[in-house]
Fold Alpha-glucosidase.
Amino acid sequence: VGKEPWWKEALFYQVYPASFKDSNGDGWGDIPGLVSEIDYLHQLGVDVVWLSPMFESPQKDMGYDISDYQKVYPRYGTLEDVDSLIDACHSRGMKLILDLVVNHTSVEHEWFKESRSSKSNPKRDWYIWKPARYDRSGNRIPPTNWRSYFAGPTWTWDEQTQEYYLHLYDTSQPDLNWENPECREAIYDNAMRFWLDRGVDGFRIDTVNKYSKRTDFPDAPITVPNSAHQPAPEMWCNGPRIHEFIHEMNTKVLQPYGAVSVGELSNTPLPSQVIPYVSAAAKELDMVFEFSMIRLGTGGPFDGKYLYRPFLLSELKRHVSTWQTFIESTDAWHTVFCENHDNGRAVSRFGDTSTPELWLASAKTIALWQVTLTGTLFLYQGQEIGMTNMPAAWGIEEYKDVESKGFYGEAVQSGDEKRIKATIAGLRILARDHARLPFPWDDSVPNAGFSERGSEEPWMRVHEGYRELNAKRQLADENSVLSYYKRVLRLRKEYSDLFVHGAFRLLLPEDEALFAYVKESGRDVRRKTLVIMNFSKEEQECCLDVAEVLSCKKEEVRLLVDSGTAVKGGDCVEPAGTSSKQSLGPWQGKVYVNF
Ligand code: TEU
C-alpha cells in the first residue's frame, strides 16, 4: 500500500467558537480565547482544529449565515487573530480547517443585497428567484411546497421585485445558485482561496450535497397530511450536477492548494450514494460525515426532527457496521464521530447519565468505541470531558437555536398539546443547543472559567454541574474521562493498523447490551483485536471465547485496555489467560489483541 495520506491518521477536533473560551468578558467565546487554550488541545493529541464559522454574520444561525466571507465577526476577533491562530497551530505541528458555508449566504451579504435590488441586476441569478403561484381562490402561494430544515416553507416573498427566493434553511439564509458559473467562481475565490492564501489547511464543507437542486422545481409528494409544506430532500440532495460541481471545486481549489476536505453529507443513507463523493478516483472530497448513525431516534428534520423515538442497540450496531465495512470494498475513506454542534451530547444520547458512576463508565466506553473504529476520528469540544445535555429542569427559554425554535414554535402553533409535549421531550435529547453550552474550564464561580468573574452573562447558560465536571479537575485525575481519552487515543495511534485502518467484523449483532467487534490488520492478517463493550447498566455475561475469536492460543491473548478497572499508573497491559466465559460490569469495555 502506498504512503497513506496524513489526514487518515490525524485526530480532528471541532471548536464551536462561541462556546469555547471568552477572553474579553463579553459573554461570547472568541479566537484569542481559543489561542490561549491551544496547548490543551495539543496535549490531548489533536492534530487538526476544525473551527466552526467565525465570519461576519447577523448570527441568525450561529454564523452559518455569512454576510462577508472575508471579515471576522467582531465578537470573535479580527483577521489578525485568525492569523495568530494559524501560527499557533502550525508552530505546534497542528493544522487548522475552517467551515465552508456556501450553499447559502445571509440576507445581509452584499451579493444578496444586489441580487434582490432588481430583476435586471447582474447578480440576480446568483440566487434562486421564482414567480408566485396562485391557488384556486387566487391566493399567492410559493413556487413549491417544500419544507425547510427549520420548519416552515423554503420560500420567502420579496415585495421589492415581486418574486420568492429559495432558502432550505432559515428565511435569512437565501440559497446561492450554483447553476451560475460566475457565482461558483466567486465562491471559490472569495470564500476559499482567500483563506487558503492566509495559510488555512482545508475545509469542513457545510451541506456539501445540496448545491445542485432539481431545476424544474416540482412539488414534493404529500407525505405529511394536512401540512402546507412537505419533506423534499430528494429535490436538492445529491442532485443532477452535484458531482460536477464538487469535482470542479476540487480541481480549481482543493487540489491545487493541497487542501484537506471533509463534507457534511446529510440525507444520504446509502453507501452507493456516498462512494462517488469520496472514492479516490472521483477527485471530489477526501472524506465525509454520514449521519445515519447519529440520526437514530430523530423523526428526521422534516416530520419534526424532535419527535424522538427510542432505538435499539442492534440498530446502532447495524449502522456502524454498514459504514465500517463499506470502505473495505472501495478505495473510499470516511470519518468516525458521535458528536457535533448539531446534535445532543453522546453520553446523554448513547451513554447513561443517571448516576456519576454510570456517567463516568459510559463516557469512557463511548471513548473506547470511537477510538477503535476505522476512519478519521473527529472529536467535538467537550466530548473528551464527558459533557452532558443541559439539565432536564431547564426551561424552553434556554433553547436558543433557530432549529429548536422553529420546531417548537410550529408545535405551539399547531395547538396540539400532545405534539408540544413530544417536541419538548425530543428537544431534551436531540436539540442542537445541548452541544453549545459554555466549555467548563474549571470550578470558578460563576462561569466555570469560560470567562472571568465580572464578565457579561455567557450567551448560553453554564451547566451547573461545572463544579464537578470541568477540564481542570479532569486534567489532575488519572481516572477521569479526559485522562482516559488521552490514554486510548495513544493506543489508537500505537495500534493504528488495527484501530485506524483495520477491517471491521461485527459480533453478536442481535445482542441488545453487548457491542462487540473484531478488527483485522491490513498489515498482517494474523494480527487481530477484539473489542467488547457492555452498552448497558446491568452486568452482562459474555460467552465469546477470546482466544478463538483472535485465532490464537489462550496464553497469547493480551488485555490491552479495560475501562472497568481504575488505572494504577500505565496501561493495564498484562497477559490474560482469558476464559471463554467472562462478565462485564455496567458500561465496562475491554480490548484484547493477539500480538
Ligand atoms: O447542517 C446541515 C443540515 O442538514 C442540518 O439540517 C442538520 O442536519 C440538522 O440541523 C441536524 O439537526 C449544517 C450545519 O451543520 C448547521 O449547523 C447549519 O444550521 C446548516 O448546515 C445550515 O448552514
Q: What stands out?
A: The two ends are 22 Å apart (CA to CA).
